[in-house]
Design a protein that fits this description.
Shape: globular
Strand content: 15-25%
Number of strands: 10
Number of helices: 9
Structural class: alpha+beta
Helix content: 40-55%
Oligomer: single chain
Number of domains: 2
């Protein structure tokens, strides 16, 4: 089954890339912009077919893909060139790829949630307390309280509660709960694990909601909001030094992690279905991750192109003359080379870590 999950993970990677580029492709077509090539993956072509004005290709290096539009990084006299389209159309084309990633990420999250939960969906609401719980005795926390935020970070799903408390090792938190629709703030609140029959846990039970269409959609939406926040926290940890490049994994380690989680879930439950659901959970996160990362204001990424488009449009309005797009093309090409080098370094690191220990 290991090979099955590896193949499934690789196929899903291809689907996410295809969906992202299709977002650019279909929006460009609907906007009247000429698309010269629509490619899945990079490098030399192993299959290609010309249909109308567009060359469709499959390339041999399974990283990324592209939707090559006329006049995207240079001047063109073609009235249907990307650079000659209205600014709002170009903005839509640029953000369409990430939009499609968000869309498929949410769709996968809905499928996962609908299949994973049986009758109830976990909440972030306190249901009851252990005997002798100090929080309940002091009425600091009450049954029905919903965790809203911990140390300024929203609590969307139950996993957030554990993740956010683990990030703060002092056991002293600034907690906000919702009580009867009102926010109650508990500053410098000590919340720590207690020992129960040899296991460490908090002194309260978390409730759940009945499984309905509404609760599944709500949970799936909150799950994707959490995935988006995890991208920010990861970047934040890299910038502050809490994490290093050694902690960054590329496609190789991602496939390994997905496969290990799926195999473990299958072995524990004797169910291939649970293994597949683990794969879907990971790829919902990866889809949202791709959507967020592509919108970062870094040249060569969609977000960087959006920033350059807005700056260029403002400059052209002030200067009353068109700026040659080749300069922006040079900028994106330079950063694309740097990104490819970074991806190669991460890939080699992952392979060495996987096979070299």
């Amino acid at each position: 089954m290991v090979v099955f999950y590896i193949v499934l993970a690789i196929l899903l990677f291809g689907v996410l890339i295809l969906v992202h580029e299709f977002g650019h492709f279909i929006t460009a077509k609907l906007s009247g912009v000429q698309v010269n090539e629509f490619s899945l993956f990079m490098g030399p072509a192993i299959w290609k077919k010309q249909k109308g004005e567009t060359l469709y290709s499959l390339r041999c290096i399974p990283i990324g893909g592209y939707c090559a539009m006329e006049g995207e990084d240079g001047e063109s006299d073609n009235p249907r060139a990307f650079g000659n389209a209205k600014v709002w159309k170009r903005l839509l084309i640029l953000v369409a790829g990430s939009f499609m990633n968000f869309l498929i990420g949410i769709l996968i999250a809905v499928i996962f949630s609908a299949c994973y939960f049986d009758d109830y969906v976990p909440s972030v609401r306190i249901d009851s307390f252990m005997d002798g719980c100090p929080y309940y005795a002091e009425e600091a926390l009450l049954p029905g309280d919903e965790f809203y935020s911990i140390d300024g970070e929203r609590v969307y799903i139950l996993n957030d509660f554990y993740m956010l408390t683990e990030r703060n090792e002092s056991n002293i938190y600034d907690i906000v709960v919702l009580r009867d629709g009102e926010k109650v703030t508990l500053n410098d609140f000590e919340l720590k694990l207690s020992d129960y029959d040899g296991s460490q846990r908090y002194d309260f039970y978390i409730g759940s909601d009945a499984k309905t269409v509404g609760s599944i959609l709500s949970y799936s939406w909150d799950l994707c909001r959490d995935f988006s926040r995890l991208v920010r926290l990861g970047l934040q940890d890299l910038i502050t030094g809490k994490a290093s490049i050694k902690d960054v994994g590329g496609p190789v380690l991602i496939v390994q992690a997905v496969t290990e989680a799926a195999v473990e879930a299958q072995q524990e439950t004797q169910s291939v279905g649970l293994g597949i659901l683990q794969v879907l959970y990971f790829f919902s996160f990866i889809a949202i991750n791709l959507g967020v990362m592509n919108l970062l204001p870094i040249p060569a990424l969609d977000g960087g192109r959006v920033v350059c488009l807005l700056v260029t449009a403002a400059a052209e309005k002030l200067l009353r003359r068109k700026i040659n797009p080749k300069y922006e093309g040079y900028l994106h090409a330079g950063f694309m080379i740097l990104l490819l080098i970074l991806m190669a370094v991460i890939a080699f690191k992952d392979i060495f870590q996987l096979f070299g220990g």
